[in-house]
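Form P-L/3: holo structure prediction, ligand adenosine-5'-triphosphate.
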Amino acid sequence: MTAFPVADEAATRGELLGLVRGERGALTVVLGLMVAATAAGLAGPWLLGRIIDTAGSPGARVDLLAAAVAGFAVAQLLLVRASRLAAHRLGERATARLREQFLDRVLALPSRVVERAGTGDLVTRSTVDVGTVGVALRDAAPDLVLAAAEALLLFTAVFVLVDPLLGVAGLVTLPVVVLGIRWYRKRGRNAYLAHGEATSSVAESMSATAEGARTVGALGLAEARVADSDATIDTVYHARMRTLALRLRVFLSVDLSHRVAHVLVLAAGGVAAFHGRLTVGEVAAAALYAWQLADPLSRIAQWLEQVEGSAAALSRIAGVATPPDPTTDTTPADDRVTLSGVRFAYIPGKDVLHGIDLEVRPGERLAIVGPSGAGKSTVGRLIAGLERPRAGRVLLGGVPVADLDPATRNALVVLVSQEHHIFRGTLRDNLAIAAPDADDHTLTAALTTIGWPTTPDLDTPLAALPPAHAQLIAMTRVALRDPHTVVLDEATSVMDPHSARTAERALSAVLTGRTVIAIAHRLHTADAADRVAVVDRGRIAELGTPAELLAAGGSYAALWRSWHGGD
Ligand SMILES: Nc1ncnc2c1ncn2[C@@H]1O[C@H](COP(=O)(O)OP(=O)(O)OP(=O)(O)O)[C@@H](O)[C@H]1O
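OUTPUT (holo model):
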């Protein structure tokens, strides 16, 4: 199962209409050029028929007719090229808009949704699926319209320019084509959705292996990861085979129908010519039209796959949407953090917090300690407004923190974890994320305060940075954002001692004067706190100053003793 759902057919149609809306003028130009190109193409066979019938008669201007045939052929070529160019531009514009819309949609997702979804599915939808829809908009859709118009006009030409009887002969097999296409479309959606889901699983498996490379190496999981990837690749292979099998059948029905129709037109034309109802030239023109049908029909069959695949891709793109979290306009009254009766579950029915009550005073340093899996990080995420409690309230200055709109919330409370993402770009770009309006002077001053080891050069391009530098950038971002509360998910535990010291200094510079809620994995973080909360199995087991808790001789005292032995 991939992480995000797929939109139903009605929502997908709405998405498509949204993409082409506003392009009515360009669409009219494209369609006009296509119809003109097709009409120019139809004149050729009719004129050739005239040449055949009049070539022997005295005074016939075969040369003029031949010149007209050539003229129409050139005109058709130019019109086809012009219509394709216009259609490509239209398709590219729509694809660019789709990309932008998708990015906006991903950015609007609550971070908890993105985190839980994993990256593979989102990346596949934003690259493979958007690309598939792009090809359909740019190439398949215009050519499909062109091919359908050509096929329609070819039949009309046989009816109008040659003989209705031959037209009927050419249409005898049409129901087989229509039924074949309907059969294909009925099965296509599910087959292509399954293919898209399988492709996402491959990306999911690969990205999990890459992201967890250290764990894979440390625990010798290479074989298991390879087996996992093999399984997902196998699923893609079978899903692809299914779509190819469907396509093969629709190709067969279209090709066979066309061949049979062509033979029927020739046979009926032969009989009509034999009885003198039609001239040889008329039969030749009809046969040429019927022969010409092969091209649009095979293009329709070929593009059908693209259209079906991209309809499924568009459903997957439209599926990446979550109703936005409700927000409030109420401004927090003060900087107080209050949790009352907080219960929380990642998986419905499985609470990991069972009624947390806690009040953090402005400017206080609170350390949260406890065994692994007790719920410490979850408390931190709730305070930072990244999760909503299932029951109870998490308030910032009297307002539910998760209801604050993200920009307001991020200016008041920031969660600093061990993962600091450095984006491609310069040092300036990476800091501007936190303070888009800050000038160079402000950025440089913030870096200096934080203890940037050299004179900061904001134009330095950043790629992979050692953890200590990434940490300094993260701290500078916090300083620039200037929140009153920082939730610290033990930010220096993965570093070597020297880097950790640099990071510690940066941390203490940035934390001065703020409320700090530190999820502590080390003794001195807890020791230096004003108060310590011990979380155990989703409850606050102890709460007090470090000295009080030590004196009480409870679980903090036991933890302190074990830390003291090993810190
Ligand atoms: N995204 C998630 N989906 C499902 N369960 C989760 C998720 N994140 C955490 N949990 C579960 O919630 C419980 C509390 O996790 P949490 O990370 O808050 O504990 P912790 O005390 O911070 O642990 P640690 O010290 O190991 O980081 C654990 O049982 C954990 O397995």
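COMMENT: The chain has a mean pLDDT of 85.
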